[in-house]
């Protein structure tokens, strides 16, 4: 029995987040059944079906409206929808009232679904922070929870493990992958005395780290707080809608209330005519057409974007896109491919190119360092010969690797590892020139002589420059925010054609820069793919994520480019402008129709059937106009 109950509980837990959508859909089915029964002249069954549609579809919104009214001591649009639907039923128009409930319930269900999705990035982010740390005290190792770490504690971080808390290396050296924090594509070598951050990955050597910050003050936790803070801020559009909602409801209900009494005393209408006109007013003044002006257009634009590889997470983001004045781009994995590739190879003119490349790849094939893998991939593309097996090999953490192959000593790594003076002089000082271009230089040494150098770089995507130029043609300012060094940032910015760049950015720096851009350009977007981009994306008016990025970036983003195609940003902006144009057409048309119906009702020209036709007809027309966005 317990297992059966657990299964039932699990099923209900799964459907609970979708309960509003299920209720709205069921309401729609009941409306269809009620209409069919009414067509078959089965009035009682038809009314029963419509009544069920009212109860099932309207429950969530009725509850929300009543709770908000009690809490804020102010009527809202939810209450107006309920009263309008009840008014339709009172004068015998069950179908119109039920459809009104259905439309409003469906929009509420979609809103709830979007809100639930927006909170997932926090849980995804938390999963990347280790829960345990290996505390070293008086030579004794003990596994403890990270929350118990205090400033001054010594912890041991082994190769392949994530750093559990911010600290400073007190012993050892290693290569650290800091992409999660800084966005830097190439791992950084860290030695004694240098800082390491929670959430980064220790790639090569074991290091002893002295904790320098409490766990709740780490850079990683700051990222989480920044995302939460940015998402809790309401947009100007949202605040305007909330203000408009209260005013609209008060005006409509006040006028309806007056219509129920004043015409009888001032104009001599009968009580039947007065109530009849008041109910017509409640029906024609309900904002069905206004709701339909936005939702179908939004859904059509979202569907259009999805077909073209652009995923929008809500209508508000579509609206904001058309107002963009500036876009900030992350570098790694966004403007660039995110993987270092060999761009230059210079071989000692006194040595065989084939021999040097073969030996370099044979040695680097035993390393897991990203640069080593890039060199191996390059050589495999140049040579068909099988790799050799070194007689001995040693990974010198933080510097490079040395090996004995085919009777010679080989070293591959930094300039200081192979000999600074010889490295700087090799090939007429080419290493310095390559470094100024933002490239990482790796030297190859055989015995006492420099054999070659490899220059590697995270290359710009083929479509980046054309995508940036397209945005510039639309009058949008472009800036690159990166954790890379100034030399690398300068080189990538020049290749990408962005208007400006800011180097050596931490996540909080990117947030600060986004706030500055918002102050200057009002509406800005942030394009990124990493965890470190999440706070900036949440701070921006529109966050745009690359489809191959991290889960956190994808969940935080408002727009996702599913195929990592940067030119799609300009396409999304064009779609946004088209949608906003159609929405404006719909809003002006629907308000005009509502005003016309209200005036003719007051003049006793409009009868209820024509009021319903005008009201529902305007709704159908704006929906049809919205469907043009599917093309």
What's the gist of this structure?
The chain has 631 residues and is an alpha+beta fold. The chain has 25 helices and 22 strands. Helices cover 55% and strands 18% of the residues.
Describe the protein.
The protein is of the alpha+beta class and 631 residues long. The chain has 4 domains: 15-118; 129-217, Calcium-transporting ATPase, cytoplasmic transduction domain A, CATH 2.70.150; 311-336 and 461-576, HAD superfamily/HAD-like (Rossmann fold, 3-Layer(aba) Sandwich); 338-460, 3-Layer(aba) Sandwich (Calcium-transporting ATPase, cytoplasmic domain N). Helices cover 55% and strands 18% of the residues. The protein contains 25 helices and 22 strands. The strands form 4 sheets. Strands 10-22-21-20-11-18-19 form a 7-stranded mixed beta sheet, sandwiched between helices. The longest helix is centred in the C-terminal third of the chain and has 35 residues, at 568-602. The radius of gyration is 32 Å and the shape is elongated. 44% of the residues are buried.
List keywords for this structure.
single chain; 631 residues; alpha+beta; Calcium-transporting ATPase, cytoplasmic transduction domain A; Rossmann fold; 4 domains; six-stranded antiparallel beta sheet; 25 helices; 55% helix; disordered N terminus
């Amino acid at each position: 029995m317990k297992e059966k109950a657990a299964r039932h509980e699990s099923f209900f837990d799964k459907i609970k987040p979708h309960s509003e959508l299920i209720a709205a859909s069921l309401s729609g089915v009941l409306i269809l059944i009620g209409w069919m029964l009414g067509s078959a002249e089965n009035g009682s069954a038809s009314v029963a079906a419509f009544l069920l549609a009212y109860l099932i579809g309207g429950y969530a919104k009725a509850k929300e409206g009543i709770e908000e009214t009690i809490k804020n001591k102010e009527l809202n649009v939810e209450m107006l929808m309920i009263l309008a639907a009840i008014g339709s039923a009172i004068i015998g128009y069950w179908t119109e009232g039920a459809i009104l409930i259905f439309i409003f319930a469906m929009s509420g269900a979609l809103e709830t679904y979007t809100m639930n999705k927006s909170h997932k990035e926090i849980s995804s982010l938390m999963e990347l922070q280790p829960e345990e740390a290996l505390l070293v005290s008086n030579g004794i190792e003990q596994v403890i929870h990270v929350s118990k770490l205090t400033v001054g504690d010594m912890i041991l971080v082994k190769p392949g493990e994530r750093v559990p808390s911010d600290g400073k290396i007190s012993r050892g050296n290693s290569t650290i992958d800091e992409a999660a924090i800084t966005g830097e594509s190439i791992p950084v070598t860290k030695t004694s005395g240098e800082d390491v951050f929670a959430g980064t990955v220790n790639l090569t050597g074991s290091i002893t780290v002295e904790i320098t910050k409490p766990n709740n003050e780490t850079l990683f936790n700051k990222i989480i707080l920044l995302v939460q803070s940015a998402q809790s801020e309401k947009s100007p559009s949202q605040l305007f809608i909330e203000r408009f909602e209260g005013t609209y409801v008060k005006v409509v209900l006040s006028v309806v209330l007056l219509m129920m009494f004043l015409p009888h005393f001032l104009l001599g209408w009968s009580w039947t005519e007065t109530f009849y006109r008041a109910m017509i007013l409640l029906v024609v003044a309900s904002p069905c057409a206004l709701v339909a002006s936005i939702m179908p257009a939004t859904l059509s634009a979202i569907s259009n974007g999805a077909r073209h590889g652009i995923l929008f997470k809500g209508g508000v983001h579509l609206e904001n896109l058309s107002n963009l004045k500036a876009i900030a781009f992350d570098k790694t994995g966004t403007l660039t491919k995110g993987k270092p590739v060999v761009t230059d190879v210079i071989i000692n003119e006194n040595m065989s190119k084939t021999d040097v490349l073969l030996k370099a790849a044979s040695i680097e094939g035993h390393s897991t360092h990203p640069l080593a893998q890039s060199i191996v991939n390059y050589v495999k593309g140049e040579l068909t010969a099988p790799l050799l097996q070194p007689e001995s090999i040693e990974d010198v953490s933080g510097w490079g690797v040395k090996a004995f192959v085919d009777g010679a000593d080989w070293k591959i790594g930094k300039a200081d590892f192979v000999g600074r003076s010889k490295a700087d002089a090799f090939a007429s000082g080419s290493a310095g020139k390559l470094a100024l271009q933002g490239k990482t230089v790796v030297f190859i040494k055989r015995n006492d002589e420099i054999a070659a150098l490899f220059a590697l770089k995270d290359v710009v995507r083929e479509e980046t420059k054309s995508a940036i130029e397209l945005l510039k043609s639309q009058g949008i300012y472009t800036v690159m925010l990166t954790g890379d060094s100034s030399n690398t940032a300068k080189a990538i910015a020049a290749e990408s054609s962005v208007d400006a760049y800011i180097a050596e950015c931490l996540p909080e720096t990117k947030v600060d820069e986004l706030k500055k851009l918002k102050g200057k350009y009002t509406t800005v977007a942030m394009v990124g793919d990493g965890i470190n981009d999440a706070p900036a994306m949440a701070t921006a008016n529109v966050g745009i994520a690359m489809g191959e990025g991290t889960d956190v970036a994808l969940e935080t983003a408002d727009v996702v480019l599913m195929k990592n195609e940067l030119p799609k940003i300009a396409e999304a902006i064009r779609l946004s402008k088209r949608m906003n144009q159609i929405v404006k057409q719909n809003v002006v048309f629907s308000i005009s129709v509502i005003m016309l119906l209200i005036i003719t009702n007051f003049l006793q020209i409009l009868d209820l059937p024509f009021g319903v036709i005008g009201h529902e007809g305007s709704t159908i027309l704006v929906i049809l106009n919205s469907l043009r966005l599917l093309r």
